[in-house]
Structures are given as structure tokens and as C-alpha cells.
């Protein structure tokens, strides 16, 4: 070990993973429907794509989790995005390609991708 | 690897002994079975603190706190939670869920953690202690860089002095001053030692730090080496802590690979290396001079001071010796500054203290609280109170060197000076909670038996004095004591305190003196009334059969090994007190609970 820069490089490599070992309310959460309907419609590929994109773009403080069936099986894969200070947005018929766009425009750009969304539901609603 | 979920499994000694390593194997198999190995990571961590609920598994990012997990439960966690995102509610630690909804609280909101403040334990249960990268990820070794690159040795010592840090091994001596003495000594060779010979019954703070965050100690010792002018350190740890020893060795090897130990660290020109020395588990080797004698390869016996270790220590050279927990605080002090550290705690006791909570308490485990937290907060709020609706009687701090804090002093703030003022001591951090079923004479006896066993025998007051103390205690609990025995206990105790060579003997009478001070009536009950108020001491127990409850089945008479019980079947039996040896076998056997003592 020669310098602080070397130390920082190691730190930055693992920091994201360590940050996720804490429950924080003010985090963007991407929730993928992973009930039988979701999985058979290809939700696993979507989930993996989200995880990969977050990693490759070096985004931090974003969690990707799963949820069960919300009753819209025909529109699976369904993905909810909860951003702090914003209404949750529900995306339907998500594909890995759409996932990339959601990351780029919604997560990074802060603007929901309206063409994929099925309406911003109130908390406790759909 | 793009990881979306991390499964933290406690790999501390407590959870390991309840099977957490098998859980890790099972998790790995199941995760592979479902093809999740690239997105879910298993992390073996140090102690989470809630040892009573082990094995503990926490799944992030949800923060689902699963307690008492069995191997059979793993498949369900993987299939339901990790695959489908459905948290397994039945395995969740109740306290970690918001009442009325299924939402998971942040750990900081859980009662057990709410009042805790983790400085020494900040990485325990968070990182994998066997991966140096995770320690570095939590700002590890930055303090060392700062110390070597931006500070002079004297600036470091001043920072430690200003932080107000005091020795966490029990004595409470100001750490900065100790460093100053070692730095002031001039010699061609000096040593930095770490006391990891945690010997108090019921104490496991140091073990947990070493198991959960070994690099913190390594980093601190390296900083100490630079500050006092030493390039060689020794960690003296008991062989009874195999997991801690193993992780420490892994950590030392990794630090060497990264050049954080060895030659020219951070290209500063400073060299430092560390070695582990195993102790055989003798209590006296926790005493500083005995510890150093043992490192030298000799029989672990103390020697008179002065000369103090800072002048003439290991191999006759100036030596700095601190406890594990003391070291664990150092990197934070260097990194965040003395003022941040000094803002925690009380005026004379700065920072936090780790306690191993045990005995009659709900949440047996490891807690770290700011100095000045009251005993009530630790027992009731963090510890969850006394189980089975029993009443709190006393808490024992400081192990065999400490004393008891009675229920009426439960609002005492826990800091060095308050504890000394009431006849106990901070000690290394064992905190044993006792309820109405504990006999205080018996407790004093327990600790005396320990010191009699562990006395090294070098000096007479300790070797013979503690033995005589124990004999008097036995006489009292056997029902043969006299009131003069209490005076004898007191005068003998004072003589042992005054005459013993080392801390072991000087503090050995404390459990007797403090129980005499606060629970004299219990001693008197054994002597005058020949009874044990808590019904613990068999020697003064009088077994009797309640004629109203006895159905005359005769089971007790069959059980009695000395034929002391007689009677006619279907009419009440009776015990011949002269023959009875008070073994209690009859009481255990009686199906009608008709026998009392």
C-alpha cells in the first residue's frame, strides 16, 4: 500500500455493497413482480438487467427487490419504482430494453417514462 | 458481480455454536440450486449482539432480521424471500417489525439497538472480517494513512489525550498518558502489545471485536507503534478463542499482503509488524506484568511494579500495553478527531463501553452504550428486562474483581467513577444480571472459587487469603457460620487487598465486600436463621413435606438415597432431618410439588 489513492480505489469498489447493508427510508427502490405470473413473463431477465445496469453505471443507494402478484398478471413483468419525494410509478410489460430506458430517464434523469407507465398510484392503492 | 441482495450470517462464537456455519453451507447450496449465485451474496460477519436469538441472519436490502434460524428454514428463505421477494414473516425477530403492519424497521429503531452507540463495534455484524477490502470500504486504514502522512507522533498522542479515552480493560487509566510514558522512554527497541486475554467469567467483548473487526485492532496497534517509536507488536490472546485467533491471523496476513503491515507503510519510511502469542487461558495472564512474562515464554506470574511496562516491559524494553476494546476506539479518534469522540459520554468518562450482558435477562448479548447510560436503561430498555416476571435484585460488573450493584442503585450512571464510588468497578465489561432467585452469598462464593482456582500462588495474601475467605463462605452457606465470621471476612478481605502483589489479589475480595455491604441481611439469614432467602444454598436447606399436598405415593421415599423418608402409602410421608443429606432428589421427583426447602 503506497498511497491514499490506492486505498480509496479499494474502498470505492466495495462501498456500494456495504451501503446496502443498512435500511434507509430515503432510497430509490426498484421492485420487480416475481410471482409465478411475473417469472413466466420474463421478470427474471428484467430483474437481472436492472441489477447489471445499476452496477455498470456505478449508481449507488438504489435497491432492487421483488414483490408478489399485484393482480395485473396480463401486464407482467411489472416493475414499481419508488423514488424519495415522488409518487411511485408502475411500469407494465417491462423488458430488459425498457429497463435500460427506465434507468436512464427515470432513475438518473428523474423523469418517469410515461409511455411504459400505467399511472402513478396512491400509496395503499393498486 | 452485480449483487442485488446480501445475506449476512453471524459467524461469531455464539451463533457458530448454535450452527450458523451449517446455515452458510445450506444457503450456498440452495442459492446455487436456484441459479442465484451471481446476484445474492452470503456474508459471514462478526457478532450482531443479540446472541440470545442466534443464529441470526439479516437479509439486505430489505433488512429482514431472521432469528433462531435452523438449517431446515434456509430453503424457505431462499425460495420465498430471495427468489420471490416474500419475506418469511414467521422467522422475523418480532421487535424488528412495525406493530400492526408487516413493515420492517431499521435496526436503529429496534429497542435493543436504539440506545446503543457503536464505536468499537461499528463494523461488527456489518463486514466480513475475513476480507480486508470490506474493512477498507468502511474507511479502514485511513486513520493509519492520516497518522503516518499528516501527523507527528506527539500530535497523535495529544489527540488521544484530548479524546479522554481511558483503558477499557478495567483499570480506566488515561490511554494518552500511557502512550506518552512509552514514547518518552528511550531505548533501541520498544514493543506494542495488545491484551486479548479476556478472562472474566461471562465477558466476551474483546473476543467479539477480534472476531468481527480484527483489522481495527491491527490498524490501531500500527498507529501506536508509530506514536511511541516501536516496530514490533504482539497480540496476546487465549487459545480458548479459536475463531478470534483464526480471523486475526487471516487479517494479519492480508494486511501484510497489502503492505499495511511490514516495511515502509504508505511509503512513510515506517516499518511495523505484528505477531500473535497464544495464552493457555490463565486468568492471571490478563495482568500486564504476568502477560508480558508469558509472552517471553516463561510461567505467567506477575512481578512488582515499578518499574512499569512503559519503562521496562517485554524483554526488559519499554512496552505499551492496551486492551482490545481500547485499541478498537483509536482509528475513529484519529479519523474523526478527539472532539467528536469526547462529545460522547460523561465529563470524566468519554466515549462508549461495550458490555457482555448475561444472567437473568431477556436479550443476552453484546451491547455498546455511551458512558453515563444508567444501569436501568441497559437492563430494561436494551436488555428487555428480567424473564418470567421475576424481580431484579442486583447486577454484577467487573467479574471477579468487581462488585454488585443492588436494585436501589439501578439509576446509577455507568462510568468509571460512579461505579467505583458505589464499591463496584467498570471492569472489562461483563454485566451479569441477577434476580430474586440468586443468593448473594452464593454469588460471592462463585467468584471466590474462581479466584482461588486462578491465583498463581506467587504471593501469600492471594494464595492463602482467598482460600481462607472461601472456607468462611462455605462455612456460612453450610449453616455453620457465626456472626464473628462476618468480621473475620471483612478484616481478611482488607488484608488481602492491601497485601497482594497484583491486581488479581488486590481485587479478589471485592465480590465479598460488596455483597456484605449491600446484602448483609442475606449473610445474617444464613448465620442466624439458618436459611437461604433465595433457596439456593443446599447446606441450610430444610426439606419438608406438606402433609396437605402429599398423596402418599411413596415416590420420594424410593428416590431418597439415604432412607431419610418414611411413611404409609396413601397417607402423608415425612423427612427425618437428621438423616437428610439435602440432595434435593425427592423434591425433583414429587409429582404433586408437596416438598419444599
Helix content of chain B: 25-40%
Overall outline of chain A: elongated
The CATH C-level class name of the largest domain in chain B: Alpha Beta
How many beta strands in the DSSP annotation of chain B? 17
The CATH superfamily of the largest domain in chain B is identified as: NADH-ubiquinone oxidoreductase 51kDa subunit
Continuous helix count of chain B:
24
Q: Can you tell me the residue ranges of chain A where pLDDT is under 50 for at least 5 consecutive residues? A: 121-126
For the residues shown, what is the average pLDDT of chain B? 94
What do we call the CATH topology of the largest domain in chain B? Rossmann fold
Q: Write down the oligomeric state.
A: heterodimer
Q: Give the distance, in angstroms, between the N- and C-terminal Cα atoms of chain A.
A: 53 Å
Largest sheet of chain B: 5 strands, mixed
Strand count, sense and barrel status of the largest sheet of chain A are: 5 strands, mixed
Number of domains of chain B: 5
What is the gyration radius of chain B calculated from CA atoms?
A: 27 Å
Give the name of the CATH architecture of the largest domain in chain B: 3-Layer(aba) Sandwich
Span between termini of chain B: 65 Å
Q: Overview of this structure, please?
A:
The complex is a heterodimer of chains A (126) and B (597). Chain A is 38% helix and 20% strand. In chain A, helix 3 (43-56) packs across helix 4. In chain A, strands 2-1-3-4-5 form a 5-stranded mixed beta sheet. Residues 121-126 of chain A have low confidence and may be disordered. Chain A is α+β, with helices and mostly antiparallel strands and 126 residues long. In chain A, strand 3 (79-82) and strand 4 (88-91) form a beta hairpin. The longest helix of chain A is centred in the first third of the chain and has 16 residues, at 4-19. Chain B has 597 residues and is an alpha/beta fold. Chain B folds into 5 domains: 5-114, 3-Layer(aba) Sandwich (Glutaredoxin); 132-342, Rossmann fold; 352-435, Ubiquitin-like (UB roll) (Roll); 440-529, de novo design (two linked rop proteins); 542-597, Alpha-Beta Plaits. In chain B, helix 6 (142-150) runs parallel beside helix 10 (214-228), helix 10 (214-228) packs across helix 13 and helix 17 (440-454) runs antiparallel to helix 21 (510-518). Chains A and B meet through helix 1, strand 1, helix 3 and strand 2 of A and strand 1, helix 5 and helix 6 of B.
